[in-house]
Amino acid sequence: MLRLKNIGIIFSFVTALSCTIVKDSDITSISQLNSLSLKSFEIVQNSKAGNSTSLAVLKYDSTVNKISKSTGAHVSRVKGFTLPALGNYKMKLKSGVNAATEIKIVYKDNGSLNDCIIYQGNSPVESYLFFYNTNNQLIKVSTVLSPTAGNVPTYETVDLLTFGATGDVYPSTITRSSTYDATLTGTYTVCQNCSGSGSSSQSVNQLTFNQGQSQVYQLSFNSGSGNCSSNGYYPYSCGSINKTNSNGGGGQNGNQNQLSFINNFTFNKTIQTSLTSISNTDTYYFHPLLILKDVVPQGDFYFWFYSVDWFQTAGSPFSSDMVKINFNYGK
Amino acid sequence: MANRIYILFFLSVSVSTIGHAQFQLPRIDVEAKIVQTVLPGDNYDQYTVKAIETTNLLLGAHWQINQHFAVGWVYSNSFRGSGYNVNDFKFNFGSGDSKAMTMFSGPDLRISTGRAKKWRQYLSINYGKAEVVEDKGSFRYSQKTNAFGASIGVARKIGNHLYWNVFEVGAKGFTDKIFWANNGFMFEMKMGFTYNIGKRK
User: Fold this and answer.
1) Is residue B137 part of a domain?
2) How far is A292 from B41, CA to CA, in rounded Å?
3) In a domain, A323, yes or no
4) B162 and B31 in contact (C-beta within 8 Å)?
5) SS3 for A289?
6) How many independent structural domains does chain B possess?
7) Least confident range of A251-265, B118-132, B175-189
8) Residue B18 lies in a domain
9) What is the share, in percent, of chain A residues with pLDDT greater than 90?
10) Does residue A8 fall inside a structural domain?
C-alpha cells in the first residue's frame, strides 16, 4: 500500500517530465520564420465616426518569371489581396474609391517591392512603382491615382531620391515632380539630427518641403509630446510626427504631434501597426508602405514619410482616433 | 495538459496524506510555490524581444536523505506571462504586448540548515528541461533547451509539518540561447509552502 502511494507521486512527476508547452506549429528558428508569408491583414478602425474591421485576404500567390513593363526590373512573385470597402470612417483610399478592391503586389527577385496596383474590378485605380539602384537603395517612387488608360489621372507624382554619399542609409533629398499639379512639386530636404533628441546619427528627424526658395512645411519626427520609448537602435519602429507650416503654425495643437505610430515587429515581420491621430477630423489614406514596409530597404523610414504624406490633418486636438493594421502570417 | 498534471499531482499528494496516519511515509515533503520569472532579452539588437516575464506555479517533492540534504523533482508552468517588444520592460509586470510562457521540469537537490525553531535557510540546485514560448498573435516562437538553476531561500516553520517559504531568489542558465531573445538566462523569485508528509527532517 505504501509503495502504491509512493508510485503515485513518482507517476505524477514522470507525467510532468513528459509535459511540454511547445506546439508542433511553433516557430523554433529564424529560417522557419522567414518561410512564413503574409496570408491576410485586417484594418481595424476605431473612430468617433464609427468602428469597422476590414479583412484583406490572400487571393493568389504566384511565381512569375518576367521583366516588369512598368519598372524594367525582373520580377519573380506576384500576390493579390482582396480588400473590402474601407467605409467612411478614418482610413480611405486616396483615389476616393469606397468599394471592394484588389491589391496586386509584385516582387523583384530579391524580394523587394516592385509595384503595387489597386484595382476596382478590372480597372486600376491606384498605381505605385518602386525603383532601386544597384545597391538596392530606393531611388524613385512613382504614384498615379485613377491611372486607367484613357482617363486623366487625379493625382500623379514622381519622387526622386538622391543619396549624399555612397553608403548613406537615408536619402539626402526627395525631389517631387508632377505633371498634374504644380503645387505638388518641390524638394524635401532630409535632415539628420536637425531637431529633437535621442536619435542616433543614422536617423532622420526632420524633413522640410521647399518650393523654390520658400519653405512650405516641415515634418519633425519625435519633436513633441507623445514620443514612444524606442531605444533608438531601430529609430522608426515607433514615433510621432509634427507637421508645421513655414510660419510655425500647425493648427491649435501647439507642439503636440499630430500623428503617432507604433510598429510591433519581430525580425523581418511586422505583427501590428497602430496609427493614432490627434483629431477625429483627420484622415488616413491607405498607402502600400503601410503594409509593405518590410519589403523595402529602410522601409520604416519611408513608411512614416509616406504615411504622413498621405495623412490629412486639421490639427485640432479633439478626441483621438486609432487605426490598427494586424498582419497574419502562415506557411 | 498542465491542469491535468496539477490535478493528478494533488490527488497523489492527497492519497499519500490520507495514508499518513496509518503508514507514516518516511522523509518526504511536497511544495507548491508561486514563481515570478524575468527573462531579459536583448535591448540593443533591432529585432529581439526586450524581455519576457511569466508567473508560474511550481510543484515539487523531495525525499529527505537527512535534515540537510533532500533530492526530488520540481515542475513549473506558467499561468500568465508577457513579452515586451514595443514596450520597454521596467518591472511594469503585465504591460507587455504579447503573451509568454515558461516551463521547467527536472531533478532538484536541496541543501538546508538543520532543524530550527523558526527559520531554515536553504540552497536549491536543479537541472532539467526548460521551454520558453512567446505568442505573437499570428504565430508563436518557442524554444526547448536544458537549464541549470540555483536559488537560495528562507523558510519559516508554521506548524509540525508545514513550512512557509517566505522568499527565494534564483537564476537559471540555458544551455542554448533563446533565439529571439539573444539571451540564455532568467531570474526567479519564489514564494510558497512546503509540507512534510513523513517524519520531521
Assistant:
1) yes
2) 27
3) yes
4) no
5) helix
6) 1
7) A251-265
8) no
9) 41
10) no
Spell out which residues of chain A touch residue B95, defining contact as CB-CB under 8 Å: none
Query: What distance in Å separates the CA atoms of residue A43 and residue A287, rounded to the nearest whole number?
Result: 12
Between residues B189 and A226, the one the model is more confident about? B189
The answer to whether residue A19 is domain-embedded is no
Considering only the beta carbons, identify the residue of B5, B49, B136 that sits closest to A15. Answer: B5
Q: Å from B182 to nearest chain A CA?
A: 12
Asked if residue A270 lies in contact with residue A261, where contact means CB atoms within 8 angstroms, the answer is: no
- Residue A71: count of CB within 10 angstroms of its CB: 18
How is residue B121 written as a grid cell?
535557510
In chain B, which residues have their Cβ closer than 8 Å to the Cβ of A203? none
Q: Is residue B15 part of a domain?
A: no
Place of cell 536544458: B146
**Residue A110 lies inside a defined structural domain of this protein:** yes
Assign A307 to helix, strand or coil.
helix
Query: What domain range includes position A164?
Result: 46-330
Q: Does residue A267 sit at the B interface (CB-CB below 8 Å)?
A: yes
Q: What does DSSP assign to residue A27? A: B
A95 in contact with B at a CB cutoff of 8 Å? Answer: no
Strand partners, A220: A206, A242
Domain span holding position B167 = 26-196
| DSSP class per residue in B106-140 | EEEEEEEPPP-SSEEEEEEEEEEEEEEEEE-SS-E
Alpha-carbon distance B9 to nearest alpha carbon in chain A (angstroms): 5
Q: Are the beta carbons of A229 and B88 separated by less than 8 Å?
A: yes
Cβ of A271 and B137 within 8 Å?
yes
Q: Which residue of A has its CA nearest to B9?
A: A12
- The count of domains in chain A is 1
Alpha helices in B19-56 (DSSP H): 20-23
ipTM score for this prediction: 0.81
Is residue B120, in this structure, part of any structural domain at all? yes
CATH of the domain at B165: 2.40.160.20
Q: Which of A2, A17, A233 sits opposite B44 (nearest CB)?
A: A233
**What mean pLDDT, rounded, does chain A reach?**
83
Which pTM does this prediction carry? 0.80
